[in-house]
């Protein structure tokens, strides 16, 4: 437990948790046993959700400010529990790029996704070597998916690369298989990539 100065008062920090490079803790003013606030400490910022020291949380439920508090809390949770921090995004982007660079054919997939299964079946029918990672089974899968959205503009899986070139999703791969891409058949693209 530690103390620090806030714009509001000297506060005591209790029950910390560490999540996604940020610390979350509840705080209460030094001389109060009742009021508590939630604080998020990230690399760059410190956020406070102060509650008036005279109020207990139970009392707060009855105030006119309660809807506003709910709104700000929901914004807080969406922003800080689900968003990817810049450092995490950077690491995920590097990892995704490495996978794209190291593999003739790279498929970012999800194990339950039928479009992903179709993609694998299509590649198997060409006897192509490919690397697939199942984003739903990776700890950083969501971050990699967000990084891929940033790199390619595509958020869905499968997200397919041949020879470091972004192909798109399963329907795009099927279109390449039937019509080719830049005048080349899928087989040629796979050969050029070293996947056949
Ligand atoms: N037209 C796309 C459809 C892909 C799609 O809808 N994939 C679903 C999973 S089956 C998806 O990515 N949903 C969002 C998600 O899983 O985050 C394709 O052919 O690849």
UniProtKB/TrEMBL annotation:
Keyword Transport carried by entry: yes
Q: Which domain of life is it from?
A: Eukaryota
Family annotation (Gene3D superfamilies):
Glutaredoxin
Q: Which UniProt keywords apply?
A: Disulfide bond, Electron transport, Redox-active center, Transport
A Pfam family hit: Glutaredoxin
Q: Which InterPro entries match?
A: GLR_AS, Glutaredoxin, Glutaredoxin_euk/vir, Glutaredoxin_subgr, Thioredoxin-like_sf
Q: Does the keyword Ion transport apply?
A: no
Domain (Glutaredoxin) ranges? 105-167
SUPFAM superfamilies found in the cross-reference section? Thioredoxin-like
UniProt-listed PANTHER family: GLUTAREDOXIN 2, GLUTAREDOXIN-1-RELATED
Q: What is this protein called?
A: Glutaredoxin
UniProt source species: Podospora pseudocomata
Name of encoding gene: TTR1_1
